[in-house]
Design brief:
Length: about 575
């Protein structure tokens, strides 16, 4: 947690005022037993009503002042803790957005969501308790011991013995429960993962009738979390009865030995009452300390998880932005002996080399898992090549500023992802000031204008998160239109027409050819019909280039491509498009 203190630098005032106010309140609380003893020994004993009322009024005044200081502390704690949580959450969100796909794959989306919500909430609570109770509770214990010593030094030894015994109980119980609290955080990630999968894949679960098995899976994970929580709870539950037994035994001892001192005249009755009150204050303060230990143990586990995210540096680093001027006849895209492997696995791509001229269209085809999506992910630097170089306009992509590189590129991923808002809002992702005419043109090229025009709200139609209120084909066409609105120099379509019928697919390809002159287009697909008319077709097999050329060249000279063609088309269709 100490490493996260930088997020509290704007709350130095609250961090100072809060504990000071709580300290003053604690001082008032320590004075109350002395005033009570005075009322009993002087007011009640002498039947002096005016004295009782005078001292009673002082107690009310101290109580009111204590309440006022407590409220100031509470407000300071709220401002600091909530502000701290907001800053940490914002900083983590910004940092996550700097990570490459490689780091995001390692950390996992469900875990990141849990860290940004549950873990930061625990840290907020720890900050609030730091201001409100961390100084107050120990001060009350120490103050009550000192006040007891001022009344009677011998009886105060009972207080020291009780405080020491309670501290030992706290230490033993909490050291045994700490591992359980850390394990709970990991189990929470698993519950989060299953919940997210169930909610996002609800339609698939229902389609396969897997509601019962998925519920059982969730229950099993939830029961594991519950089991750990119960074990931690059982240990923590020992704190109250054990500390109460010690405290009550100490109170009995104080009354027993104090009674003898009162009988002999060494102590007054009011002083015994004060000692009992101080013992009660020590008990309550120690219980607060035990709760603080639980809170800070949880916060410590959460802080390590939050720091793990901040310590994760992006493997894809920002370029210097110094790129050479584009020379004449420089290829738009070039791969120079590029190899790539995901962490902990073999090569996904191996020794890939090719060039693509500006304004050309390239089709990439291959079997499932051949590396098609991985290859195009290297162009906008979602990942960096393990070996070799990827060049755009003659410059290594690592030299570009991320914003400059991705401004050149419009990419439509395999999964058509839309965001909550109107169609127009989604269309303006690539160009915030896009006009209605530009949006309309992009929709027409993407073959989406026809169905959008039939909607009552047109482009003002609200899209639910993920585009769940649209069909798969509609989502794909809108994501293609979104990429086109930005008028990129390079357009990458990563199997983004898989949900389209053949007629719509053909119309899309024709519109792209006619309306995007000068734009370099890369079309990833498993359909021969989608890539056969490209200027150049790249065939991948097992992460390696099996062939590169036109449709006719590859059909006659590349066995992998020929096999794909004959699996989808009749022989006469291959030869006569």
């Amino acid at each position: 947690m100490f490493r996260l203190r930088r997020f509290l630098k704007d709350y130095k005032l609250q961090l100072t005022i809060g504990p000071v106010c709580k300290l003053i309140e604690a001082i008032f609380e320590l004075l109350i037993p002395l005033i009570t003893a005075d009322i009993i020994d002087n007011g009640v004993k002498n039947s002096d009503i005016s004295y009782v009322l005078q001292k009673g009024g002082l107690m009310v005044l101290l109580g009111a002042l204590g309440l006022g200081f407590a409220l100031v502390c509470q407000k300071s704690a709220s401002i600091a803790s909530q502000g701290f949580g907001t800053k940490v959450r914002n900083a983590m969100f910004r940092h996550i957005n700097t990570l490459s796909h490689n780091e995001l794959d390692k950390l996992g989306t469900p875990s990141l969501i849990t860290r940004m919500t549950n873990d930061i909430n625990r840290l907020q609570l720890a900050v609030a308790m730091l201001i409100r109770l961390v100084i107050r509770a120990p001060f009350l214990v120490i103050g009550a011991l000192i006040m007891a010593m001022t009344i009677d030094l011998k009886l105060s030894l009972i207080f020291f013995a009780a405080a020491l015994l309670i501290a030992v109980i706290l230490f033993v119980v909490m050291t045994r429960s700490v591992p359980f609290y850390k394990a709970m955080q990991k189990k929470m990630d698993t519950v989060s993962l299953i919940s997210r999968e169930n909610l996002s894949g609800n339609r698939v679960i229902r389609a396969f009738g897997r509601q019962k098995s998925d519920t059982e899976r969730f229950q099993a994970s939830n029961e594991e979390l519950t089991e750990i929580a119960v074990k931690a709870g059982r240990l923590s539950a020992l704190l109250n009865p054990m500390t109460y037994v010690v405290a009550q035994a100490a109170i009995i001892a104080v009354v027993w030995f104090g009674g003898g001192l009162v009988f002999s005249g060494e102590l007054k009755t009011g002083q015994i009452i004060a000692l009992v009150n101080y013992m009660t204050q020590i008990l309550l303060a120690m219980i607060v300390v035990s709760n603080l230990v639980v809170i800070f143990t949880n916060a410590s586990a959460s802080a390590s998880r939050v720091n793990e995210v901040f310590d994760t540096l992006p493997s894809v680093q920002e370029g210097e932005g110094i790129v050479p001027e584009i020379a004449e006849h420089t290829p738009c895209i070039a791969f120079d002996k590029v190899s790539f492997s995901y962490s902990g696995s073999g090569h996904a791509l191996k020794d890939i080399s090719f060039t693509l001229e500006r304004g050309q269209t390239m089709g990439i085809i291959g079997g499932t898992g051949s590396g098609k999506s991985t290859l195009v992910s290297l162009i906008p630097r979602f990942y960096d090549a393990t070996q070799g170089r990827v060049l755009v306009d003659g410059a290594d992509v690592k030299q570009y500023k991320m914003a400059d590189l991705r401004h050149k590129i419009g990419i439509v991923p395999q999964k058509a992802e839309l965001f909550s808002g109107t169609i127009k809002d989604n269309m303006r992702w690539g160009k915030r000031d896009a006009s209605d005419a530009e949006i309309e043109k992009a929709l027409k090229i993407a073959q989406a204008y026809e169905f959008v025009a039939k909607l009552p709200e047109k482009t003002e139609r609200y899209i639910s998160p993920g585009g769940k209120n649209l069909s798969g084909g509609q989502r794909q066409r809108l994501t293609i239109a979104r990429a086109l609105v930005g008028q990129p120099e390079i357009l990458i379509l990563d199997d983004s027409a898989s949900a389209l019928d053949f007629a719509t697919d053909a119309a899309l390809r024709k519109a792209l050819y006619e309306e995007t002159q000068g734009m370099t287009v890369i079309m990833v697909s498993q359909r021969v019909g989608t890539v056969r008319y490209a200027d150049k077709i790249l065939v991948l097999d097992g992460g390696e280039i099996a062939g590169i050329g036109t449709h006719n060249e590859l059909f006659h000279h590349c066995e992998v491509y020929k096999e794909i063609c004959l699996s989808q088309l009749k022989a006469e269709e291959v030869e006569n498009p």
